[in-house]
Design a protein that fits this description.
ten-stranded mixed β-sheet, 272 residues
């Protein structure tokens, strides 16, 4: 039975107060519930209500959003954030209702036709352990790239195959929630050099993958923002169904041998 109770209800808040772990997203929201925490929850409530699926189809998404586990919660948040972003940019798209068979999260119709799977780079277990031990965390782009490659599990490959079977490009939209995201490290350039430079890292990824959209994000004063300057679209030159260059024009564009075009939009951050 689908719950008719509003998302993040008073009952949920009571549970979050007693069961959330120190340092978790829910604990941070509870601590700032009169200020930034309220803005954060209000934004997610609004996005969830406007998300164009029926209540039954949104049940799984609601479960993830209300989860007290950071990884589950952020997975749901990023689906909504991606939807808010493409609507803001004027794309025509639709979320795909969840099924028992793996398939992407969204289908875009214009300005480019493709399927999009949304994924998250969470804080690594190693960094979490170092935080807990009150130790410093080193900047390690090579480890982050290794984790990007590790995203292509059997399930992800089946999602890519879904798009390929319909002869359409398949895109991975990757939200960066790692320790250094939002700190101006220019990881988007390092990722581009790996994927499209001399070593052509796309060779190690499935040919059904048409492009990666890397999104550096931050939460400031309860609002979610995406960096235009430090996000990018990376086109796979080996793709079975290539994504046309120039897709997602508001972001930096990267293609073979790391030729690139920076976004011409003046706003450094997209506030969703």
């Amino acid at each position: 039975m689908v719950s008719k109770t509003p998302i993040f209800s008073d009952d949920w808040l009571r549970t979050a107060r007693t069961k959330s772990v120190d340092g978790s997203w829910a604990a941070a929201v509870i601590e700032t519930l009169e200020t930034t925490g309220r803005i954060y929850l209000s934004t997610l409530r609004l996005w969830f209500e406007r998300f164009p699926l029926n209540p039954k189809q949104k049940h799984q998404l609601r479960t993830r959003l209300e989860s007290l586990r950071d990884d589950e919660h952020l997975g749901g948040v990023n689906e909504l954030a991606w939807w808010a972003f493409i609507v803001r940019e004027g794309f025509t798209a639709a979320p795909l209702p969840p099924t028992t068979e793996p398939r992407p999260d969204f289908e875009l119709q214009s300005p480019v036709g493709c399927f999009v799977e949304v994924s998250t780079l969470n804080v690594s277990q190693k960094d979490q352990a170092q935080f807990k031990a009150q130790e410093g965390v080193a900047l390690n782009h090579a480890e982050t790239i290794r984790r990007v490659i590790g995203k292509f599990t059997d399930e992800k490959q089946q999602q890519l195959k879904y798009a390929s079977d319909q002869r359409k490009p398949s895109v991975l939209a990757l939200f960066d929630y790692t320790t250094w995201s939002g700190m101006g490290t220019l990881f988007h350039r390092t990722l581009g050099d790996f994927l499209l430079g001399k070593q052509l890292g796309f060779r190690s990824l499935p040919s059904e993958l048409s492009a990666i959209v890397y999104l550096e994000r931050k939460v400031l004063d309860g609002r979610i923002a995406l960096s235009r300057n430090r996000s990018g679209v990376y086109y796979n030159p080996l793709a079975t169904h290539p994504l046309p260059p120039g897709a997602f024009p508001c972001l930096n564009q990267f293609w073979l041998q790391l030729a690139s075009v920076d976004s011409t939009v003046n706003d450094h951050w997209v506030w969703l």
